[in-house]
Amino acid sequence: MDFLQNFLEVNPFLNLTKILVCLLVASFILIVVGFYFDFSRNKRNEKKIGILERAIKDLIEEFRTIELSLSDQKKILNDYKYTLERLDQEISRLADSSKEDSKITNAIKMANEGRDIDEISKLTGMSKEEIEPIIKYHGRS
User: Fold this and answer.
1) Positions of E strands within 24-113
2) How far apart are CA 23 and CA 29, in angstroms?
3) Residue 26 and residue 28: Cα distance in Å, rounded?
4) Is 2 among the domain residues?
5) What is the C-alpha to C-alpha distance for residues 135 and 108, in angstroms, rounded to an integer?
6) Averaged over 108-132, what is the pLDDT?
7) DSSP SS3 for 50
8) Which residue range is the domain that position 86 belongs to?
9) Which of 43, 59, 103, 139 could be a cystine partner for 111, CB 3.0 to 4.6 Å?
10) How many Å is the maximal CA-CA distance in the chain?
11) Are 111 and 120 in contact, with CB atoms under 8 Å apart?
């Protein structure tokens, strides 16, 4: 306590000025140290941001590559789909014509055996108008 009392009594204005100058210097040093640490932290963050930006650009490029690849694969799949639909239609057409051929073949066999129009019509499901020419050309005379 005596120290503070002697400090202020000797020359209070000079002593108060010394205290303010010391506080000002300490504040200036703290501000400079704070700016230095803030500057160094900003530099590190800028480096990290640069790395992230490059990584994002690389990812965007990869996504575009994948998108193009998927687009090409979609075109190929659509071509396959079209081909399969055409094959399915052709198979259906062939199956239908095969059934018709089978009916006609059976009708010819029955006409060769000497069966009449009504019997052939019932067994094959063909109309009498379809069976008449078959009997005319393949039936027993």
Assistant:
1) none
2) 10
3) 5
4) no
5) 7
6) 88
7) helix
8) 13-138
9) 139
10) 156
11) yes
